[in-house]
């Protein structure tokens, strides 16, 4: 049996992809008790990404010489690991192709393509095992199976079939990715663009892997020895390809999720001034979701409690005060959005004061469409114009009266 003590190339991507898979599943805290668990069984794209990462990890694990030797030893069949690894590679290629189709054209077209691609790869997989059963390959090779048996009947066809099937899938997938990027037919931006660029680069490395392997095999056919291309160069290219492809499929999903959580947390913090004002005035409605709540739940809870509190303040809200405050804010150079926020902040502050002095006011004359964006109002509480505008609007109101 050939040595594999210095063979470490695929261990790094195996660990990387396993960590990537864990991140995908644990992006949101308490996976088994939150909506991601439900999404995993209801969202076909999420299932496809998770399944693809599982296959990628399996390929990187079983392609190492230690695992190849283990499979052969456990099954008692010399070189059985070869068709097993080739099958995993075929399934991985199959999954990548379908996922790219689903991303680009939607799940419906991916389902139509599923049957054609499934039939093709099922035939390839069956042929791999039939050729393996027919080949006479008694000597175990854990590192150089491809080149050692490159001229052996049936093993030769087995090796060429898996390499051509792998290269064909990589070529088609690469064509779809780069065509998607340059055609302009589909809008590509943000995290999806970054993911596709990684995937496109990963599939270039994938094709280089196939080229190295095929070159080494053909060299054996012509009586030359370029085995180092298969045993040394190809694993490096394959490991790089696995990392780039795994990251390319992972990045759009995790990136969008993390960005959404970050934006929700930022929006939650932006509402803090208004939330604190209502809380300190004893006018806050609703409940706190707790420190361990997700960003989305915390934001929804704070947004709802603020809006409910404002609804309870409606009897004390003065439409004319809002109009005067907005007009003064605009006069002093505020933008329309800033003026709306300042006017809302002035009106709420005045309503809280009125509520303290006249707690039993009749609720019959509530203003309509007064407050606008609560985020602008919360921001305006710290705006330097707010105090000035409030004083001016209050004094103007007294003069009018």
UniProtKB/TrEMBL annotation:
Keyword hit for Glycosyltransferase: no
Keyword entries, A-Z = Membrane, Transmembrane, Transmembrane helix
Naturally occurring in which organism (per UniProt): Streptomyces macrosporus
Lineage, opening ranks = Bacteria, Bacillati, Actinomycetota, Actinomycetes, Kitasatosporales
Its protein name is DUF6545 domain-containing protein
Give TM segment ranges: 12-33, 45-64, 84-103, 115-139, 159-178, 190-209, 229-251
Q: Which InterPro entries match?
A: DUF6545
State whether keyword Transcription regulation applies.
no
Under the heading Pfam families, the entry gives: DUF6545
Q: List each copy of the DUF6545 domain by range.
A: 261-359
């Amino acid at each position: 049996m050939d040595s594999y003590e210095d063979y470490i190339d695929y261990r790094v991507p195996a660990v990387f992809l396993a960590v990537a898979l864990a991140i995908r599943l644990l992006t949101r805290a308490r996976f088994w008790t939150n909506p991601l668990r439900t999404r995993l069984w209801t969202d076909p794209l999420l299932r496809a990404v998770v399944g693809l990462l599982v296959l990628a990890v399996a390929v990187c694990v079983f392609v190492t010489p230690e695992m190849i030797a283990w499979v052969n030893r456990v099954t008692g069949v010399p070189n059985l690991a070869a068709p097993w690894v080739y099958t995993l590679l075929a399934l991985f290629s199959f999954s990548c192709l379908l996922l790219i189709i689903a991303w680009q054209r939607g799940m419906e077209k991916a389902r139509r393509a599923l049957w054609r691609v499934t039939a093709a790869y099922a035939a390839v997989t069956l042929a791999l095992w039939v050729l393996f059963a027919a080949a006479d390959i008694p000597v175990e090779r854990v590192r150089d199976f491809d080149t050692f048996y490159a001229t052996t009947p049936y093993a030769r066809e087995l090796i060429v079939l898996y390499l051509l099937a792998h290269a064909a899938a990589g070529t088609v997938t690469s064509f779809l990715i780069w065509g998607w990027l340059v055609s302009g037919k589909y809008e590509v931006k943000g995290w999806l663009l970054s993911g596709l660029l990684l995937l496109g680069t990963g599939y270039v490395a994938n094709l280089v892997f196939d080229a190295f392997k095929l070159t080494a095999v053909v060299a054996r056919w012509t009586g030359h020895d370029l085995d180092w291309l298969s045993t040394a160069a190809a694993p490096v290219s394959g490991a790089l390809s696995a990392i780039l492809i795994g990251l390319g499929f992972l990045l759009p999903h995790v990136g969008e999720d993390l960005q959404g959580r970050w934006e929700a947390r930022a929006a939650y913090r932006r509402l803090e001034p208004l939330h604190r004002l209502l809380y300190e005035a004893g006018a806050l409605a609703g409940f706190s979701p707790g420190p361990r709540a997700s960003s989305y739940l915390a934001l929804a809870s704070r947004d709802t409690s603020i809006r409910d509190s404002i609804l309870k303040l409606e009897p004390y809200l003065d439409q004319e005060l809002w109009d005067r405050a907005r007009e003064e804010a605009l006069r002093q150079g505020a933008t329309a959005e800033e003026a709306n926020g300042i006017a809302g902040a002035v009106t709420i502050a005045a309503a809280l004061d009125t509520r303290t002095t006249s707690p039993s006011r009749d609720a019959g004359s509530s203003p309509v469409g007064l407050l606008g964006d609560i985020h602008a109002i919360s921001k305006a509480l710290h705006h330097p114009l707010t105090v000035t505008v409030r004083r001016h609007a209050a004094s103007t109101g007294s003069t009018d009266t």
